[in-house]
Amino acid sequence: MYFPMRVLLSQVRIADPHQHALSAPCDILIVNGYIDQIADHIEDETAERIALPNAHVSPGWVDLFADFGDPGFERKEDLISGCAAAAAGGFTEVCLVPNTSPVVQSKAELDYLLHKSKDQAVTIRPLGAISKDLEGKSLAELYDLHAHGAVAFSDGWQPVQSAGLLLKALEYVRAFNGIIIQLPDDRSLSAYGLMHEGIHSVRLGMPGIPAISELIPVQRDVELTRYTASRLHFTGISTRDALEVIAAAKQQGVQVSCSVTPYHLALTDACLENYDACLKVIPPLRAEEDVKALKQAIEQGIIDAFATHHRPQDVESKQVEFEYAAPGMIGLESFFGIINRELPAVSLLQKITMLTTKPRTLLGLSDIQISVGKEANLTIFDPDQEWIFEEKHIRSKSHHSPFIGQRLKGFVYGIVAKHQLILPHVSPQ
After folding, report:
1. Where residue 2 falls among pLDDT bands split at 50, 70, 90?
2. Which residues are CB-contacts of 426 (< 8 A; sequence separation ≥ 6)?
3. What CATH number corresponds to the domain at position 397?
4. The pTM is what?
5. Judging by DSSP bridges, how do beta strands 123-128 and 256-260 pair with one another?
């Protein structure tokens, strides 16, 4: 809903990375979409008072990699349903992959995305295609895309396989301090695989996707980034070996960064025992030792950010044999409850930093602070609430999630953004 003139968030704790500590409970008065007062207690009978149990407020969260299918695949998701899912998950800004029809490779496609979503509380941040038609053969018009609203460049679910083309892209974006986002996947090694290559793939009789299919492109792309002195971000990192390469590159001053999905933190290849098509994802669910390495890398600050890899599929794409099922699961609405449950050793402020300051810095977006006079761009949540994720919490068109029925920790109430207050849920019982 659009803001009433005055909204009072009552007795919330501010989780702002800039303050380095949670605040004591306080009131925040928002007038016409801007923060008007922050005080221990505010009396304002004209304001709509919002009082929620154990409510915390942080700068709005950013998702670095999601798929809303619009235009071309609206049967799976569209900008309206995708934005509703994002708001329900606590995200005020979402980066969308260019894997649409037509591909996001010109001003026309950018204008469509930005115009159609302009009235939504969630801000769409388009990722422009690296290669024309995502074919990996020739560069798209990167500067034109940058000039008209693309915040970064990626071929999304079809990562660039050609070292020569990626080198050209890295050189090109360096001129305006742009960034390339790669899903590390060597398709010549992973093309026929259905799950992580290991003991479970052997037991289940399914072709495996070896960890080296992630390691090799990470090694290659690190060296290309070093050579060009450009910037590159790996999304969906899933293996221990790839993490070691990234950690070493960072220590050497190479401008690489990486993000991890919630499902790679919560699930392993052992979960595929029942051939559940919801668990078919790219990169695949990895071994237990890889999951442990991911969590340790977050604790050590090696992993920079999170990315939901929200990839809705329609019923026809999932309710088939595992071999023929399309990869992907939804990830926005359940996101915080998963990462908060799986990372008890990571402080709340570090998690918020990975959702706010880090992705905004990577994308070159302006900083957000919770202070008087600033436009309200906020996520409202309870980090301690345990709840059961159910279909009623889903706003996406797709309901394909292996987390339905699971107990999660950390409940999102909603967002304040673009002069709108979105509170899609009441606290679960």
Report:
1. low
2. none
3. 2.30.40.10
4. 0.97
5. unpaired
> Residues 302-315: what's their mean pLDDT?
97
pLDDT per position as a tens digit, 163-192 = 999 999 999 999 999 999 999 999 999 999
User: Which DSSP category does 139 fall into?
Assistant: B
* Antiparallel, parallel or unpaired: β 256-260 and 305-306: parallel
CA–CA separation, 390 and 334 (whole Å) = 9
Structural domain that includes position 87? 59-363
- Distance, in Å, from the CA atom of 282 to the CA atom of 246, rounded to the nearest integer, reads 19
Give the pLDDT score at 428.
39
Mean pLDDT of all residues in 17-27: 90
Number of domains the chain contains = 2
Q: Which residues contact 104 (CB under 8 A, 6 or more apart)?
A: 96, 98, 110, 113, 126, 127, 128, 129, 145, 150
Q: Mark whether 264 and 397 lie in a shared domain.
A: no
Strand partners, 125: 95
Domain assignment of residue 242, yes or no: yes
Residue 194 CB neighbour total at 10 angstroms: 21
Q: What's the Rg (C-alpha) of the chain?
A: 21
- Domain end, chosen from 363, 385, 402, is at 363
Q: Is 123 helix (H, G, I), strand (E, B) or coil?
A: strand
- The tokens describing 42, both together, are 């505010």
- The CA-atom distances, in angstroms, between 350 and each of 15, 20, 227, 377 are 10, 9, 31, 19
Question: What's the CA gap between 12 and 424, in Å, rounded?
Answer: 18
Question: Does residue 335 share a domain with residue 404?
Answer: no
Residue 328 forms part of a structural domain:
yes
**pLDDT tens digits along 232-280:** 999 999 999 999 999 999 999 999 999 999 999 999 999 999 999 999 9
Query: Is the domain of 290 the same as that of 209?
Result: yes
* Model pLDDT, residue 21: 81
Three-state secondary-structure class, residue 333: coil
Helix residue ranges, H only, 92-162: 107-116, 142-147
> Has residue 429 been placed in a domain?
no
Out of 363, 386, 406, pick the residue that ends a domain: 363
Judge if 122 and 67 occupy the same domain: yes
**CATH number of the domain bearing residue 88:** 3.20.20.140
* Residues 184, 281 within the same domain: yes
